[in-house]
Inverse folding.
């Protein structure tokens, strides 16, 4: 079977997998990133990709999912706030170092392509992936094609505002973005926002930095009133955003991934009724909500899929 190298470039580490054409993962290599200077990251990528290639010399191409707004044809990172890069020639710099073609795409779009091709997107042609982690990443497949937009910005679903007047401040500077309200970080913020109403809450015995979204969700499932209130407010904002996505795209399926989605049915049950209520002009029940299947591997598998396809979309 043909293989490609699929790379998931994150803010703290980079993973390179040897991925088969059927989405199977044959080997994985990981490296921690401490310095996000462009030249340092390029060398880290060269090293980890070299190891992956070494474990399977037959890889036909390399695909890299990177945070930021990325020019799809050239692989230039136009800007990436996470890395502090502007017009960083990621694709060209790596192409010089390897004998096989290198493709670069936005990490969330790559994850969407992976989940669409090998996960919960199978059998659909209109599909949305939302990863609820530190932020909210996403991607839209419409009529079988991943949408990149006029300037590669389509799919930035995390930065549509659901609470523009009374929401939390987003990392992008706006108030009440979907990401600020409904990511894993959003759940933690909801817990602090209602904390004064629960002076005897056990959650507050924890140091602020130890209070993760998983602890809040588990406490909510165990019936803790403080956690349950935060969870309900969180689910209400998540439902708002999901109904907006349905109004814009009416996908056959929306898959929820990322850390918070490990809540599974507890999460889906918390939002389904409200999403239905907020779905007005789109026929109700025509968008299915599911938990994503590929988990943390979606980025690598999708980046390799991009490499096999020689780009994120069939139109490039
Ligand atoms: Zn934002």
């Amino acid at each position: 079977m043909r293989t490609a190298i699929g790379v998931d470039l994150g803010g703290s580490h980079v993973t390179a997998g040897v991925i088969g054409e059927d989405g199977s993962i044959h080997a994985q290599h990981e490296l921690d990133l401490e310095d996000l200077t462009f030249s340092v990251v390029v060398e880290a990528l060269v090293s980890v990709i070299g190891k992956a290639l070494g474990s399977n010399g037959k890889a036909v191409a390399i695909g890299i999912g990177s945070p930021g707004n990325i020019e799809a044809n050239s692989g230039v990172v136009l800007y990436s706030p996470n890395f502090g890069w502007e017009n960083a020639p990621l694709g060209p710099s790596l192409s010089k170092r390897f004998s096989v073609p290198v493709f670069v795409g936005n990490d969330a779009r790559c994850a969407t392509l992976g989940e669409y091709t090998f996960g919960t997107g199978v059998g659909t042609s209109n599909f949305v992936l939302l990863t609820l982690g530190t932020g909210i990443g996403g991607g839209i497949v419409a009529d079988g094609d991943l949408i990149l937009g006029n300037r590669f910005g389509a799919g930035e679903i995390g930065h549509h505002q659901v609470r523009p007047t009374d929401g939390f401040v987003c990392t992008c500077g706006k108030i009440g973005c979907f990401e600020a309200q409904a990511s894993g970080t959003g759940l933690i913020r909801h817990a602090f926002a209602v904390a004064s109403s629960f002076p005897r809450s056990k959650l507050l015995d924890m140091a602020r930095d130890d209070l993760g979204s998983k602890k809040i969700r588990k406490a909510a499932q165990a019936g803790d009133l403080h956690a349950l209130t935060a969870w309900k407010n969180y689910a209400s904002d998540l439902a708002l955003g999901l109904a907006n996505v349905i109004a814009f795209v009416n996908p056959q399926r929306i898959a929820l991934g990322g850390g918070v989605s490990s809540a599974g049915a507890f999460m889906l049950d918390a939002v389904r009724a409200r999403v239905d209520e907020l779905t007005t002009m789109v026929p109700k029940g025509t968008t299915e909500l599911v938990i994503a299947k590929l988990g943390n591997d979606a980025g690598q598998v999708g980046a390799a899929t991009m490499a096999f396809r020689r780009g994120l979309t069939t139109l490039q």
Observations:
- The two ends are 25 Å apart (CA to CA).
